[in-house]
Amino acid sequence: MNNLSTCKEWPLLAQKALNGECLTEEEGLAVLEASDDEVLPLLQAAFQVRKHYYGKKVKLNMIINAKSGLCPEDCGYCSQSIVSTAPVNKYTLLDKGTLLAGAREAMARKAGTYCIVAAGKGQTDKELAQVVDAVKEIRETMPLKICACLGILKDEQAQRLAEAGVHRYNHNLNTSKANYPSITTTHTYDQRVETVEKVKTYGMSPCSGVIIGMGETNQEIIEMAYALRELDSDSIPINFLNAIPGTPLEHAGRTPAMKALKVLALFRFICPSKEIRVAGGREVNLRTLQPMSLYAANSLFVGDYLTTAGQSIGVDHQMIEDLGFEIELNAL
Ligand code: SF4
């Protein structure tokens, strides 16, 4: 048992985070290995940091799966990969009208950010032009922020997206550098980092996060948080693996809800000012403890994920209201 593992210590970690200091690995391990009895005081400390930067506001994001399945990559968690036998929809890039209809749906759900996500290692220039065309019209007609997630980017593609008005670009690190080859062999961790750096070069806001529950150690979770702090990712989606039958990781167990809360507190301490989103797998891993996640995280996905269902928008809005929190519109 780590000696930094009582409720007396958590406010010190919060203060350290607010002072701009990074947690040591020992302190990070104390968070992740804390007894479940410590989760309430731990979240209370994380909440002080969250409140400092975001008050009680909750940012909502909605995803559209703009191109589904048919992906030649072999990401072990993904139902759209070439090595998955999961029965997912397979379609090429959605037309402009459908992408615009998705944006209107995001507005109806009070999402401030609309995330256009397409399967694949990257997109062709023709596909990118289709996205650019839709983004321009959304930007002209709706007060939405746009996040694109289109895989590895070429320089000119990054420039075209930025010029079209894409605010943010998502490219997750997913797991630690050491664990990466056991999850994906068709591209590398370093290629992921390069894309996030490219996003910053072209003036888009970087969004990069992780998937917890893919065989990583606690030390590796801390490494991921350090890597994202170093990358200065503005937005950090914390996904918890939803093991989909037919994927290589189908037998990975779920992350216990209490562990998921400790992970969220850890990221709040290590990346204190960043938008931390409790992302994919929220419903199946946190289950009835979902509301507690918002004491550390300040952002949610609403609606469905890429190939799995989310909970109803009414339940998400009710959860936020019941917590006494408030939806932040049009935030990035
Ligand atoms: S995560 Fe993306 S790149 Fe990897 S298999 Fe799925 S769609 Fe393809």
TrEMBL record:
One of its GO terms (molecular function) is biotin synthase activity. CDD domains: Radical_SAM. Its cofactor is [2Fe-2S] cluster; [4Fe-4S] cluster. Signal peptide: none annotated. The keyword Iron applies. PROSITE patterns: RADICAL_SAM (PS51918). SUPFAM superfamilies: Radical SAM enzymes. Belongs to the radical SAM superfamily. Biotin synthase family. This is Biotin synthase. It comes from Paenibacillus chondroitinus.
